Amino acid sequence: MPYEWLETPTQGATAELHAWPHRSLPRRGFVWFIATTATGLAVPLLPVVGSPILWGLLPFVLAALWGLWWALRRSYRDAQVIEVLKIWPDRLLLEQRRRGHPARSFETNPYWLRANLSGEGPVEDYLTLTGGPREVELGAFLTPPERRNLCADVQRRLQDLR
Hints:
alpha+beta, 8 strands, 3-stranded antiparallel beta sheet, PH-domain like, 3 helices, 2 domains, single chain
């Protein structure tokens, strides 16, 4: 799962959660995919090696390979998101860090906090934390079953704290 509760929370917290987007293509798989694609694109060029046709086709093959490489790298860069939820007996802190954006934080008393799943929202099973006048989303990048599991986990942790 793309989230985990840490065994030893930092800064004296009673519970700490780290959530991140799922990576279906790890870095090692990225290298293999690009190499396999380059090989696959080179095979049709073999019959025209040594002829002027090669020089007409080569820029398009290289552009396709570069475009694929760029798109995958951009996907990795955009998905550098982490959400950290720390729970103490007297306060709860949610930090959302996204590459290229300032960190956002939400702090409240966990006694008044509610974890809600809603069918209405930008994603299915929209998970929000409501504490006081503010409502923030948690794990928008998770799948609906993962959000349901996370909601139950957060509710259980808050109930144990009370």
